[in-house]
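Quick sanity check, Transcriptional regulator:
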Amino acid sequence: MARMREERLAHAAFLYYIQGQSQADIAATLGVTRSNVSRMLTAAREQYIVRFEIAYPLDRDPVLEQRLTASFAAEGVREVIVVPTRASGVGRASHGLLNVGQACSAWLDINLRDQDRLGLCWGSTIEAMVESSHFDRRVDVEVVQIAGELSIDSRFSGHDLVRNLAQKLGGRYRYFNAPAAIRDEETAIALAQTPQVAEALAAARGCDVAIVGVGQFASGSSDLFLKRANVTPEETQEALDLGAVGQICGRFYNDKGDQIDLAISRRTLSLDLDEITAIQTVVVVASGSEKAKAVRAAIRGGFVQVLIVDDSLAQGLAGLQ
């Protein structure tokens, strides 16, 4: 029954998007009402029977890329990719996010190898990368979560991200079946020792490549993480007092790139920053000049081998040298 429904949705989508028929014509062909056709097209998009790719041309900035690579090479950065932030259309921030996501997809297409294990964390830039990505080859990789479950966008869970990316690559995926933020430290310790969570963390530590976003403390996705984690005012004040400037996978660090031991961190299920640093290639994706201090501190901490950013963030980083 489910397959018949999927085929019917695919048929309606084919008639509308490929053959260019009107919804009224499709309704007559399928023997349904026009409103039913509209609902079928919506369902086809929501169930990923129909997928869209927006192929903006990515005009990179090689001069700024070389300048930042040279500046940060001593701190472990091997490659910098800078893509444009357009000031028109659907919005500057949206374009930067989309362009960075597409540039990360292109990097993966070139650099991933068969038998690699690829780790993903959550974040709006990673969601944009997974949604906009397409690959010109199949790669036998395993895609895993390096942090527990947290949805930045209500449409996508961490499970959705690893599954969708693995399917686009032609690889396999593994879930992290636990929330990122636990209600208390004691429960977090107990969960981390269960076979299922211990295996998920071990798989994450075994990644060859990890894609992570960077959050500015108490802003954007970092702020959302704090809210989803039900952080108390006391925990927030502790982070401020200890100089938290950035966050990667729910782990906070100061302007020197040193991980901070916080109460919230002790009830978070994810790789810590030392474990992330041990991964052979960590690709940091970020957009927006407001993240410059957080990204610069991440570079100081040695968390970044490949940096993919939009030009507004790149200019901000250049100004912090």
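Posting the structure with no commentary besides this: The chain has two domains: 2-46, 62-319.
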